[in-house]
Amino acid sequence: MNKEFRDSISKALHNANLTGALGRFSETYRTSRLKAYEGIDFEVLRTRIAELKSYAASHLNVLSELFAKNAEAKGAKVFRTNSPEKVKEYILQVARENDVKSIVKSKSMASEEIHLNPYLEQHGLSVMETDLGEWIIQLAGQTPSHMVMPAIHMTKEEVSDLFSKEINERLSSDIPKLVKVARKEIRSKFLEADMGISGANIAVAETGSIVLVTNEGNARLVTTLPKVHVAIIGIEKLVANFEDIVPILTALPKSATGQLITSYVSIITGPTPNTDGSMKDLHIILMDNRRTEMANDPKFKQALQCIRCASCLNVCPIYRLVGGHVFGKVYTGGIGTILTAWFDELKKSEDIQGLCIQCGNCKEVCPGKIDIPEMILEIRRRLVVDKGQSLVQKAIFSVVNNRRLFHSMLRTASLTQLPFAKGGFIRHLPMFLSDLTEFRSLPAIADVPFRDKFKEIKQPNLKEKATFYAGCLIDFAYPETGAAIVRILNKAGIEVVFPDEQTCCGAPARYNGAYEVAAQNAIDNIKALTKDKTKYVISACPTCTVALKHEFINTFESLGNNDWMDQAHELSARTMDFSTLIKKLVDEGRLTLKERQQLGKFTYHDSCHLKRTLNVHEAPRELMKKAGFELVEMFESDMCCGMGGSYSIKLPEISAPILKRKLKNIKDTSVPVVAMDCPGCVMQIRGGFDKDKAAVAVKHTAELLEEQFK
Amino acid sequence: MFDKFKSRAEAVSAEVHRFSTKDEALMFIIDVLKKEGVSDSPRAYAVWADCPFLKGIDRAMLAGKVPGLTFEVTRETAAMSHVGISQMDWAIANTGTLAQDSTPFEQRLASSLSFIHIALVATDGLLADMPSLLTKINPKESSYIAMITGPSRTADIERVLTIGVHGPQRLIIVFVDELKG
Q1: Which of A357, A455, A610, A679 gives the lowest tally of CB atoms within 10 Å of its CB?
Q2: Which residues of A615-642 are buried (b: 16+ CB within 10 A; e: fewer)?
Q3: How many angstroms separate the CA of residue B135 from the nearest CA in chain A?
């Protein structure tokens, strides 16, 4: 990560206006989005959108041809090109042919993508953005920081300064007054403009129609008042049939701003009469700019299912801290990272892709059902293939890949940490490592790792067996969690097996794009975990569970390595997370919780991988409640804690404020205990409270349940 | 369906009225025009786009009653109007949306440039939802299909909702039972 980018992060984090505005918006967005979707089956709706957009992405050429044929039959002129340069030249030519001097534009991300305004202005044309947010950033000489709300990063005072300068009159920062100024200034431009440029939210091949969605009403004026209308459309906006507009129009406003529908929806099919009775000169540009290439890449085709609602920005814990000028280029946030890698170039996404913490919030709300985190990992992988690992990372992974060396280093660490470790925590580290302990203490490495402790645990001889996969944190930092699990399973009549050869699950390597390393980790673990034919493989770390259950397979697929695929599937089928297995055993009557206990209040933190990849959120809550704990839900219980594996080491400045928010939400419930199913989250949150000095016990669910079974 | 429409439209700041006869609706409109100070001077005009509601109404007499009201909807009159009146073809209950074939430019001018838009609609033009609308309209026959839900709005400055940016600041919806859609 280069210094300039790092500085931009720091600047954004210290901009209280920015983090305040984005933070407040993301908090209210969550509620308004849910309210807008009341009574609608979101899964059904987004599956429909994903299907119809995926179909369109597979038929871009056919649909472009059909669209052109139908739009031309209605009298529109359609220009198809792959090249951004050709788009600009075409518009300039149309402008010259029609003696255009002044242009009004409604919001178009496609025009931002090709930097149209500066080009037209260089050629002597006056161009005015008419969407209020776009006009603000045009006056400020900036790019949009959000796809739907381009000026969300600016305060009313900053807007007032811009407008005052523009109209040479000192204005107050009263928002309704500022909006009136915009109306008046832009209205006169609407009336004198010779050309209107718009984008389109949808283009319908069957009818040659374009669909425009706005709240301000500017698109209606852009398409009505000037005699020439040019619509620039990225071909991913194509759909096959007219009826396909319904699911998109249903989801787009709800996901974008929590509205049931926008104030205006216009469906334009061919030229319409101008106000002087002549017919509109309607030009529709279908722009490819690598979209076809993207559709042909199986890893990225689904990105074309995007309907540009920007909900992935609105729910992103990183975006709401740093905004779109840090997290993005022209397109911003999660999907923006992917679009930047394609419409711009792969290496332009290098810095911004590193901001993704892989929490999966965006995937959960995406109305196009796009797996944004997975595609960002693929970008990471390709960057590593292109550029190679950094030397430091290479050194780390060569250790991780050598199990004996890795484990002996961790053991050595438990001795060498002595000057820093006290009471189970490392509170301060010297020099460049100090960033790691500035905002949260780190757990001391356990004197006796779980792998050694396990040998001391006396287990009854039982017929049914389960393999325990500890993962690095339980093995070397929290062996007591592992011991709790063995005791609980024994009560259910299950004997635990611990294969010593198990090693790191490969998640750190995978999340850093080092797939070859991750694949080697996968193979080592598959060998270790499949040799005993036990009924279950159980893990109490959701990240590890996801690795065992899904990512070994994905990593092999990405690398085209099928040697261990069958075994990977076999392991996947047997793997279960702690709470799901225990809940199952309770439901089957093999484990019984003590009755009539009153264990006090607790709150539950949903770990990213457990909630959003494994879809587990009720099981741990139900077990805890059944044991006699009383649940008090916290605000944003399923928002990331900022740990993200090595993320908190690479970007401690971002991890810290995310953790701070989490600690506050926990404290606001006034409960003495917070439970969670992930040792990574335990490390982050427990370390945070150690620094914060609040008296909140941070526990893995297994620890809290250990004593509660008969 | 009307009640649903009314609650959804009012939730987005539209004003909703319903009359059984054209006469009552007309009296209401004249009242609004007078209250709003419509007069024969720039920025105070009212423009009324041709529509089925006007059938059988003596336009000259009506214009005489309300100075500044014109049925000539041009760029100039619309840009200088305080009120625009048009008739919408459909009303979608579950979103509080009005829909219209807006191909004639007068329909768009009368509903987009003034501060107030009075939208007439036949009560039997009520439809349940957008899929029902799509069975009634055909883009191959209507070059400009417009849907309008509430007045023009923005939240582009600090996410503060502000009504009336480029389009009307007030949307007054007038259902008329007697009108046939």
Answers
A1: A455
A2: ebbebbbebbebbebeeeebebbbbbbb
A3: 9
